[in-house]
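To whoever picks this up:

The parser on our side crashed when reading a file containing two proteins. I've narrowed it down to the boundary between the first structure block and the second sequence. Both blocks are reproduced below exactly, byte for byte. First block:
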Amino acid sequence: MATATTSAHSTPSRRWDLIGRGLMALNSAVTFAVFINGFFLMAAASDDRLMVEGWRTFGYFVFSAMWAMLAYRPRHVPAIWELVILHKVAAAVLAFTILDTTEGMQSSITDSSVAAFTIFAYIVCRGWESWRVVQLGNAPLKAI
């Protein structure tokens, strides 16, 4: 019979955990508001920009949902932290390469801010703990 062994893990203090979760909830709420605004932008978009505006709008919903999951259970959603951080850092880097445009200037501020908030929350909430997986005998993998 196989027994599971896990390394000791530490839980963040309640205060830091609430701060990190609060930042993720704030990111989620603001992004949801931008998602709603996206429908107005889609309605005003020309036919050749409709797909781009729609893609962006639906992306805001996905990111709002991912930040909500991180706020709700920060140590139970493997890969979401890293995917959000990767995307937001990549978007910020892209924005900094086109600072001479309106979208580049706006995105350099927003994407670098939410990337920083998410990285900070990842650290204080110990987001890497979401990767802890235990396999007990033939039981399915389950995150702790």
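<<boundary where parser fails>>
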Amino acid sequence: MTDTFDWSDPVATRARIEQQVKDAERRAAQAAQVRDDIAGVRERVASPGRDVTVTVDASGRLADVALTDAALQRSPAALGALIVTLAATAQKAAGARAVEIAAEAFGAEDAAVAHLRQEIAELPDPSQDGRPQIEYR
């Protein structure tokens, strides 16, 4: 893209620079709001019997694991595998919500949104393997 602006007019140049500064300030405020909104994202996923519930934040960090007495009837290996699978499912959902928030603010075609979308797409799909690698000692 070629810049065809006439830089020889000092009044127009100053107005253009002031507008660019306002645009940059608006974008920075938008980015701060998006960061705060994404920081508040929590996704909760429950097992089919609702005996295990896992909550993660937007970065996929485990925020909570809730177990009912029925969950404790599972073997340790089965319970661990279920928690890992639920966490991965919640992580993908939280990532998708973060992409939505960023796209709403910056547009679906924004480079940062595209990068975030790609990172989420590269997360492992918990439904593909179904057998997370868990080691018990």
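After patching the parser it read the second block fine. Confidence is low (pLDDT under 50) at residues 130-137. The helical segments are 10-39, 76-106, 111-121, 126-129.
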